[in-house]
Amino acid sequence: MNKHFRPRRSMLYVPGCNTRYLEKAKGLPADSVILDLGDPILIAAKEDSRRNVVNAVKQGGYGAREVVIRVNDLESPWGHEDIKAVAKIGADAILFTNIEGRDDVLTALEALDQAGGKDTPVMVMIESPLAVLHAEEIASASDRIACMIMATSDLISQMHAHSTKDRFPLLTSLSMVILAAKAYNRGVVDGINSHIKNMEAFEYACRLGRDMGFDGKSLVHPLQLTYANDAFTPKTAEVNTAREIISALSAANAAGRGTVVVNDRLVEHHHVKAAQRLLNLSEMIAKLESSYV
């Protein structure tokens, strides 16, 4: 199993310019918090946001949540200063934007290493048509990539496509990135829903993303957390079936058979691997949620 494997059912963007939100995130049931220095932050607030995020991470209080810092594009006036400020403060990962190929990944890693973050994992945003087309190249660039995160709003804009409930314009792109991530054992998380009050569409997107193979959903409002967490949490019936699959095939193998039927479904070795992953995830989620109490 990937050493970076962990629950990422919900990844909540938290603007670095707002100290109240940075504090509030410490008590929210998000698997991951993305402390944001990037594009949503006004130019006049960039440096204050950086100081706020550094202070928030150093003060701690985020518990077992994964703490990720999204830095500005390296070609912007703030990118390298962001990295210098956050490389050694204890974040779980640094999220890099505008990654469109292997060279971009290596450039980001070099900048992080030079700033003292040599052992820090990274995450990459997939936000353009070129990034989607280069998804395999990106995923294979380094084992320090903990997760690939879709930026679907940016992608829709650059495709000149329309945002629809069934997400039809995005399905090819989403599938390409999921395949690349799974091929190289990277985490992969779906993009945000911009219509934050349309919970029906958000829940639909969560369940569609789960069925496609995403590990979770990124989001911009705490009200969305319940829907994302529920969609990406293994259900009791799934957990029980996973245990049954492992037990039944073990017994079949001991009896000299390579397959077995469980609940009218033919089970082989690859089903056991998937079942074990689901059990591991379920246990991690239970441990994470117990820390919220």
Q: Tally the helices: what do you get?
A: 12
Helix content: 40-55%
Main beta sheet: strand number and arrangement? 8 strands, parallel, barrel
What is the succession of H and E elements? EHEHEHEHEHHEHHEHEHHEEH
Q: Tell me which oligomeric state these chains represent.
A: single chain
The strands making up the biggest β-sheet line up spatially as: 1-2-3-4-5-6-7-8
Extended strand count: 10
Rg: 20 Å
Strand content: 15-25%
Low-confidence stretches: none
Average pLDDT: 96
Shape: globular
Output the structural class. alpha/beta
The first-to-last residue Cα distance is 28 Å
Describe what you observe in this structure:
- The protein is of the alpha/beta class.
- 46% of the residues lie in helices and 15% in strands.
- The chain contains twelve helices and ten strands.
- The chain has helices spanning 19-24, 46-59, 79-86, 102-114, 129-133, 135-139, 152-159, 171-183, 199-212, 225-231, 236-254, 269-290; strands at 10-15, 32-36, 66-70, 93-96, 122-126, 145-150, 187-190, 216-219, 260-262, 265-267.
- The chain has an eight-stranded parallel barrel, surrounded by five helices. A two-stranded antiparallel sheet has the order 9-10.
- Helix 4 links the parallel strand 4 and strand 5 (122-126).
- The radius of gyration is 20 Å and the shape is globular.
- 43% of the residues are buried.
